[in-house]
Design a protein that fits this description.
Helix content is 33%, strand content 10%. It is of the alpha+beta class. The strands form five sheets. Strands 1, 2, 3, 4, 5, 6, 9, 14 and 15 form a nine-stranded mixed β-sheet that branches. The longest helix has 21 residues. It starts with 11 loop residues before the first helix and ends with a helix. The site of one magnesium ion has 4 residues, from β1. This is Glutamate--cysteine ligase. It is an enzyme of class 6 (ligase).
C-alpha cells in the first residue's frame, strides 16, 4: 500500500460522489508528470525489493503467557515445541519501533537496515531496503545481505513469543481464535468486512484499511466470496461441508451474500450464501490482502524502456508464480491450489453484479471482465519513439565470447558513445538491435476503457497504447477518498492519480516518476511472486528477475504472445504441482538478436536461439508449426532451462550467457550470482520442490494429520515453528528443508 495519507476517509456513499473529481484531477496530475518526464533519460537501473512478513505469536507448553518467560526469537534461549500459533495483531507497533530506528539512523547520517511500513493486516509488516540497490552486478549481491539485516533488526525488537515469518499465507487465518491477543470476535452484522471468520481487529487500525474493506463490499453490493477447491485426501468427507462458525450462530441478521447458481450452501445457517460444496469458503478482504508476497521494482532509463520492460515481464509473471508457489493451506484446510493469486483477486473484487455480467447494465457504466487485482490486460508497447531500446549501460557490457581481442563490437564506455543513453533520439550506429516487436494482435482480450480519459490523454499527444493503459486503469472508482484532500495542486501532487493507480493491483505495475522527487524515474514493479521461507531464496528470485531484465535489454529478447494465453498460464500456475506438471504457453522465437546470443549459449543451444522449426511430438504450437510468431505449450523446466529437442534456449541459459558476457565483472561476483541462478535452475528442474509442495508434505506427514485435509492447531504450530527456524537459518532444520530451500 503506497498511500497512507492522514485524514477522514469518506464512506462509500459519500466517496462515490467524488469519483469523477478524483479521476479528472488524477488525469491532470498524470499529464503534468508526463509533460515533465516524458523526455527524461539516462536513469540508472536501480532496483529494490519489498518483503512482507507475518507476525506470529507462539504458545508453549507450561509457559506463563503473562510472564513471557520463553524468548523465541533467537536470543540463545533454548527453543521448545509450541502448542499453538496465532497471528499477533500488534505488528503496527513493531513497525513503529522499526521506523523509529530508521529515523534515528538517518539523523545520525547512517543508512538504516531497512525501511518498514505497515500493511493491510494488523499482523503484517513490510520492509524494503533503506535505499534502492545500485545498478552494477556487484549491487545484486546486496539483496540477500539486506534481507538478512531486516530480519535480524525485526527479531531484536520482537516481543518474547513472537517471530516474523516469511510465509505467504498463515495456515489458520480465519479459524476460530486465530489472533493474539484474543478478544474481538467476528461481527457478521456490523464489521467493515461482515466476515463470519475475521474480526475488524485484524485489520490495520489506520482508517484507510477498514474504509477500503467496507467500501469494496458496499460498492460491490455484497460480501466478497472466494471458494477454493478442497484438497481431497483419503479421509476427506465427501461432500466436504463445514459447520457454521460461532460468529454466525450468534448473528441476528444473516450476512448479505448472494444465492449461489446451484442453490446449494455448505455451511448450515448460512443460507442463502455462496459457499460451494467441496470448497473452502473465504469471505473477507483479509483472506487475500492478509497474505504476503515479494515484489521487485526497477527503474528504467526512460519511459520507453520502462514500457518495453513492462511488456517483457508480462509473460514471465505466471511462470514465476508457478515456480514460487507457496500457498497450499487456507483457513485450516489443505486446498487444491498452490498459489494465492485468485484468492487475493477475489478478496478485493469491488465490481457490481452488473459489471461482472450477472445482470444487465443499468446503473454501472461498464462490463468489467476482471477484478481490480488481476493479471495485466494490455501490453504497453515501447511507444512511438521507441526504435531500439537503450544502448547504455546494458548493451555495451555484452561482448560475445568469440569476438577477437581488442575489437569489441559495442562501445565499452560512456565516452565512446555519442548518446550514452541512446533511447530514441540517439544517432549512434551502435544501436543495431530493433526491439520494437509489439503487434496489436497480442492485446487480444476484452478491455473496457474510460473514453473521456482516453480522449483527454490523446489530446495531449499521448500515444494510443499508453492512453489505453491509463484509461483502462481509470474505469475504476477511487475507493478511499479523504475529505481534506479533495482539492490538490495538480502540478505538485499525484495523490488523485495514485488513488486509482495504486488500487489497480496487477501482475506488473508501470510507475511514473513522483512529481516531487527529481531523483526517481520511470519504474516497473514485478508483483506476482509468492514469498519463500529464507532470505537466500527471496534474494534468488529477486536477483533472477533483475538479471532477466538485463538480459532482455542486452539481447533484445522478445517474449510477446497473446494476453489470452498469458491469462490462461496464470490460472495453470496456481494449480497444485503446476511447477512440475503444468504446461504453459511461451513464445518459442524469443531472440531476434541471434548473433549476440548464440556464441554465449552452451553448445547444444547454438543455432537454436531463434526457436522455430517443427516441435517434437507432444508439443502443441499456435498458430502453427512454421509461424515464426508461434507459442508452444511447455513445462516450466522447458521454459526456464531450455529444451534442445524443442529448439528453445530457456531463460536460465540466456541469463547465464548474459553473466558470461560480462568479462570485466569480478569472477567472484559472477560466481556468487551463479549460485542464485543455480537455485532457480534446480527449482525449475524439480530437483528442488516448491515451497507449496514442501509445506503440503510437512503438513500431511505430521503425526496429528488424519488424512482429512484439516490443519489442526498443533500442525499449524509445528509448521510455523519450522518456517520460523528455516527463516532464522537454524542449520539442523535447514538440512531437513534443503530439498526445497537449496543451501
Ligand atoms: P509500493 O508499495 O508502492 O510498491 P514501495 O515504496 O514500498 O512501493 O517499494 C518500492 C521499491 O522500489 C523499494 O524496494 C525501493 O527501494 C525501490 N525504489 C525506490 N526508489 C527507486 C528507484 N528510483 N528505482 C528503483 N527502485 C526504487
Ligand atoms: Mg506491500
Ligand atoms: Mg510497498
Ligand atoms: Mg505496496
Ligand atoms: Mg509494491
Amino acid at each position: 500500500m503506497g498511500l497512507l495519507t492522514l485524514g477522514t476517509p469518506l464512506s462509500w456513499d459519500e466517496a462515490k460522489q467524488h469519483a469523477e473529481h478524483v479521476r479528472a484531477h488524477g488525469i491532470e496530475q498524470f499529464l503534468n508528470i508526463w509533460n515533465k518526464c516524458k523526455t527524461r533519460r539516462s536513469d540508472a537501473l536501480l532496483f529494490g525489493d519489498e518483503v512482507e512478513y507475518l507476525l506470529a505469536h507462539f504458545d508453549y507448553e507450561g509457559d506463563d503467557e503473562e510472564t513471557n518467560t520463553a524468548k523465541v526469537n533467537g536470543n540463545g534461549v533454548a527453543h521448545h515445541r509450541p502448542t499453538r500459533v496465532r497471528l499477533s495483531t500488534t505488528a503496527h507497533e513493531l513497525v513503529a519501533k522499526l521506523a523509529h530506528e530508521e529515523e534515528v539512523a538517518t539523523q545520525s547520517g547512517l543508512v538504516a537496515d531497512g525501511h518498514w511500513v505497515p500493511e493491510y493486516g494488523r499482523f503484517m509488516a513490510e520492509a524494503t531496503p533503506a535505499r534502492p540497490f545500485g545498478s552494477t552486478l556487484n549491487d545484486l549481491l546486496e539483496v540477500e545481505k539486506s534481507m538478512k539485516k531486516r530480519r535480524r533488526q525485526a527479531e531484536e525488537v520482537c516481543a518474547p513469543h513472537e517471530a516474523l515469518l516469511t510465509l505467504t499465507v498463515f495456515p489458520r487465518l480465519g479459524c476460530p481464535d486465530s489472533f493474539y491477543p484474543s478478544g474481538q470476535l467476528p461481527a457478521a452484522d456490523t464489521s467493515a468486512s461482515r466476515s463470519i471468520f475475521i474480526p475488524d481487529s485484524a485489520i490495520n487500525p489506520h482508517a484507510r484499511f477498514p474504509t477500503l474493506t467496507a467500501n469494496i463490499r458496499t460498492r460491490r453490493g455484497e460480501k466478497v466470496a472466494i471458494n477454493l477447491p478442497i484438497f481431497r485426501d483419503k479421509n476427506t468427507p465427501s461432500p466436504f461441508l463445514e459447520p457454521a462458525p460461532p460468529s454466525l450462530l450468534s448473528s441476528t441478521t444473516l450476512p448479505q451474500v448472494p444465492v449461489p447458481a446451484d442453490g446449494k450452501a455448505t455451511i448450515p445457517g448460512l443460507l442463502p450464501d455462496c459457499a460451494k460444496p467441496d470448497h473452502v469458503y473465504l469471505d473477507a478482504m483479509a483472506f487475500g490482502m492478509g497474505n504476503c508476497c515479494l515484489q521487485i521494482t526497477f527503474q528504467a532509463c526512460s519511459v520507453e524502456e520502462a514500457r518495453r520492460l513492462y511488456d517483457a515481464l508480462i509473460p514471465v509473471a505466471p511462470i514465476l508464480t508457478a515456480l514460487s508457489a507457496a500457498s497450499p493451506i487456507f483457513r485450516g484446510y489443505l486446498v487444491d491450489v498452490d498459489c494465492r493469486w485468485n484468492t487475493i483477486s477475489g478478496s478485493v473484487d469491488d465490481r457490481t453484479r452488473e459489471e461482472r455480467g450477472l445482470e444487465p447494465l443499468r446503473t454501472s457504466t461498464y462490463r468489467i471482465p476482471k477484478s481490480r487485482y488481476d493479471s495485466v490486460s494490455l501490453y504497453l508497447s515501447g511507444g512511438p519513439n521507441y526504435s531500439g531500446g537503450c544502448g547504455f549501460p546494458r548493451l555495451d557490457m555484452v561482448t560475445p565470447r568469440h569476438s577477437p581481442e581488442g575489437t569489441p563490437q559495442r562501445p565499452r564506455s560512456v565516452a565512446e558513445m555519442e548518446d550514452p543513453c541512446g533511447c530514441g533520439d540517439s544517432t549512434s550506429s551502435e544501436k543495431s538491435v530493433d526491439m520494437d516487436y509489439f503487434d496489436d494482435k497480442y492485446n487480444d482480450i476484452p478491455v473496457p476503457i474510460n473514453q473521456k480519459v482516453y480522449e483527454r490523454l490523446r489530446e495531449n499527444d499521448i500515444d494510443h497504447h499508453l492512453a489505453q493503459h491509463i484509461s483502462h486503469l481509470f474505469i475504476r472508482d477511487p475507493l478511499v477518498v479523504y475529505k481534506e484532500l479533495l482539492d490538490q495542486d495538480d502540478s505538485q501532487s499525484s495523490d488523485h492519480f495514485e488513488n486509482i493507480q495504486s488500487t489497480n493491483w496487477q501482475t506488473l505495475r508501470f510507475k511514473p516518476p513522483p512529481p516531487n522527487n527529481p531523483n526517481i524515474g520511470w519504474r516497473v514493479e514485478f508483483r506476482p511472486l509468492e514469498l519463500q521461507m529464507t532470505d537466500f531464496e527471496n534474494a534468488a528470485f529477486s536477483v533472477f528477475v533483475v538479471l532477466l531484465v538485463r538480459a532482455v535489454l542486452g539481447f533484445g529478447l522478445n517474449f510477446y504472445m497473446p494476453l489470452s494465453k498469458v491469462d490462461e498460464n496464470l490460472q495453470t500456475a496456481q494449480k497444485r504441482d503446476a511447477a512440475k506438471s503444468g504446461r504453459f504457453w511461451f513464445r518459442r522465437n524469443i531472440c531476434a538478436n541471434q548473433d549476440l546470443l548464440e556464441d554465449l549459449l552452451p553448445a547444444p543451444f547454438h543455432s537454436l536461439a531463434n526457436g522455430g522449426g517443427v516441435p517434437p511430438p507432444g508439443y502443441i504450437t499456435h498458430p502453427n508449426n512454421t509461424d515464426p510468431d508461434q507459442h508452444t505449450l511447455m513445462t516450466i523446466n522447458d521454459i526456464m532451462n531450455g529444451n534442445t529437442t524443442l529448439g528453445f534456449p530457456g531463460l536460465i541459459p540466456i541469463v547465464r550467457a548474459y553473466l558470461q558476457g560480462q568479462p570485466h565483472v569480478d569472477r567472484s561476483v559472477r560466481d556468487s550470482l551463479e549460485r542464485y541462478v543455480d537455485f532457480i535452475a534446480a527449482k525449475s528442474r524439480g530437483d528442488l520442490v516448491t515451497t507449496a509442495s514442501f509445506l503440503r508434505k510437512v503438513a500431511t506427514e505430521h503425526p496429528d494429520y488424519k488424512g482429512d485435509s484439516v490443519i489442526s492447531e498443533q500442525i499449524a504450530a509445528d509448521l510455523c515453528n519450522l518456517v520460523r527456524k528455516i527463516g532464522e537459518g537454524d542449520p539442523e532444520v535447514l538440512e531437513m528443508a534443503k530439498n526445497c530451500c537449496g543451501v
